[in-house]
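look at this record:
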Amino acid sequence: MAMTVHVDIVSAEGAIHSGSASMVYASAEMGEVGIAPRHTAFISRLKPGDVRVENEQGEQEHFYVSGGMLEVQPHKVTVLADTAIRARDLDEAAAMDAKRRAEEALAGHAADFEYAKAQAELAEAMAQLRAIEKLRKMKRG
């Protein structure tokens, strides 16, 4: 039996995933990280993007997180995110619409607060679209 690590992905709405994995990949603040069982403990911020959980058979399940924190212990990985969605549940049309609205708000920004909010919304919409595209490529390949 291969070694595994327990993975919990939790959002403000509740737990979205709990189970074992042979490998976990995430977009940490300083770049992509790969976490194997018995990995050295660390904590990092997560960028909006893809979190991949690979099972013992090599199959990957994809999740989109809006950012958050990643806690790694030798036998447990915890992802805490404001928003976490199974990648297959992402709505491309809604992400494209959010991107368009954010770009329009940036073009006609009136106040610094609205500009910062529009930038954050644009970054999240772009991260969702990248996650959708990555999932599409993996299905083709």
Residues 90-140 form one domain. The chain is about 30% helix and 45% strand. Strands lie at 5-11, 14-21, 23-28, 31-35, 42-54, 60-65, 68-73, 76-81, 84-86.
